[in-house]
Specification:
Heat Shock Protein 90; 76% helix; 8% strand; elongated
């Protein structure tokens, strides 16, 4: 408990400092942002004032060019500059609204600009009504020059005031930056000290937690390994029990049904002519016995397919796929390379059970019209793929703890030290990819030793 208290003290202090840093940084940012806006405004004020003066000069030049030459194309600078003057003047008023001195200069400039525009318009009107000499005489007076000199003086005053404001704001900007750098440096030093203190206080706890974590990870790995071995053992026991039950049904129940049918057939032959009613019932009983024999055969095949033990995995896959295709109107394509592949019993039964479960899921949930099964033997192991064109899995289905079919398939492949992957999307079908090495769980490598192991298991 004391160690926790010692750790909480610097952490609380660090939290307080962090909040202070946040507040200080926000205020510094606001000051710098405001200074940046003011600096930008001062620069724009100078630029707008200069542009306004340029447009007025262009307008006066265009007017004089028309009057002096009589050519209308010389009036183009006037017509192009005139629409730009009023927006620039309004923008200049907005930029100088917060400065009393600049606002007064802008007001006088606006008055002079109005007088200059009125003068230019009056001269053009006089030119159109009375001709160039009269308009030229009016231009030669000093009225227009005095107005333009006043405009230039006001523009110079505005630009000078904006430059002075720019210098003052830049100085304030530098002071704020220096103050912010000092604060950041001070906070950085304190943070380093705080980190060192927290590290020294927490190192012991971190070491203890790491030791506990490693212990727990070891225990989890052990429990996972035990559960995996238990699951594999249960699956093996299940297969052994299925095989034993299939053998008992075949030997005991099969012999009883065959013997019973033979006896009833003998009686039916003796009574067929003498007692038609009784012989008809005996015939129905023999039909029921035939149905029982078919059911017995189907149960045996579902428990332990005889074709798997007698002809191998390739034949068992073909047989089961044909059964499913006929029963569910599902088009299936099977590709097995090499065609005469021979595998150990453990691998054969595991892959066959995975195929059964996968096709069952296709029939129950996928709503697929086609399925593709591929089994290929490579140098390192087996590639087994089952694919359909159905509606696909929901996103959570693969990792759902209640999806026992998928978990069972995954566990069967994991028991063979193989890999199991599912790729699916809604409306995009489902693809199950598996790889099983042939040198670990099977205990046999590809080639002759593998074939010998498969034949030994079949015997």
């Amino acid at each position: 408990m004391p160690s926790i208290t010692k750790l909480l003290i610097p952490l609380t202090l660090g939290l307080a400092v962090s909040v202070s840093v946040l507040v200080y940084s926000e205020r510094s940012y606001q000051r710098l942002n405001r200074a940046n806006q003011l600096v930008s405004g001062s620069l724009e004020t100078q630029a707008v004032a200069s542009q306004l003066l340029g447009f007025l000069s262009d307008a006066e030049t265009g007017q004089r060019g028309l009057i002096l030459t009589g050519r209308s194309r010389y009036l183009e600078p006037y017509t192009m500059a005139l629409p730009q003057i009023d927006p620039k003047l309004r923008r200049l008023k907005e930029l100088t609204a917060d400065n009393v001195e600049l606002r007064e200069h802008t007001a006088r400039l606006a008055k002079l600009v109005g007088e200059k525009l009125a003068e230019l318009d009056a001269v053009l009107t006089l030119y159109r009504k009375k001709g160039a000499p009269t308009a030229r005489a009016l231009i030669e007076t000093d009225v227009g020059r005095r107005t333009m000199d006043g405009i230039r003086q006001e523009v110079d005053s505005i630009q000078g005031g904006a430059r002075a404001e720019l210098i003052r704001r830049s100085s304030r900007w530098n002071e704020d930056v220096a103050l912010a750098r000092f604060g950041v440096a001070l906070i950085a030093v304190f943070s380093v000290i705080l980190v060192i203190v927290v590290y020294l206080l927490a190192r012991r706890g971190i070491t203890q937690r790491e030791r506990v974590r490693r212990t727990l990870e070891h225990q989890v790995r052990q429990r996972t390994l035990e559960l995996s071995e238990l699951s594999s053992s249960l699956q093996n026991l299940q297969e052994e029990e299925r095989a034993r039950l299939a053998h008992d049904i075949h030997d005991e129940l099969g012999s009883i049904l065959v013997a019973t049918k033979m006896d009833i057939s003998w009686v039916y032959g003796r009574l067929k002519e003498r007692d038609p009613t009784l012989s008809q019932k005996l015939a129905r009983a023999m039909g029921s016995l035939d149905d029982g024999v078919d059911i017995k055969r189907r149960i045996i095949e579902e428990l332990r397919p005889t074709v798997l033990d007698s002809l191998g995995l390739a034949a068992a896959i073909d047989w089961h796929v044909n059964q499913v295709a006929q029963r569910a109107n599902l088009k299936c394509e099977v590709s097995i390379r090499p065609a005469d592949i021979e595998l150990p019993s453990a691998i054969s039964i595991a892959l066959f059970r995975v195929l059964q479960e996968a096709l069952t899921n296709v029939l129950r949930h996928a709503k697929a019209a086609n399925a593709w099964i591929t089994l290929e033997q490579e140098e390192r192991g087996l590639k087994f793929e089952i694919r359909d064109d159905g509606i696909g899995l929901q996103r959570s289905a693969e990792h759902n703890r209640l999806s026992h079919g998928i978990l069972g398939m995954r566990q069967r492949i994991a028991a063979l030290d193989g890999s199991f992957e599912i790729a699916s999307g809604i409306g995009a079908g489902t693809r199950i990819r598996m790889f099983v090495p042939l040198t670990s769980t099977a205990g046999a490598a590809p080639g002759a030793p593998l074939a010998q192991s498969a034949r030994a298991n079949q015997k």
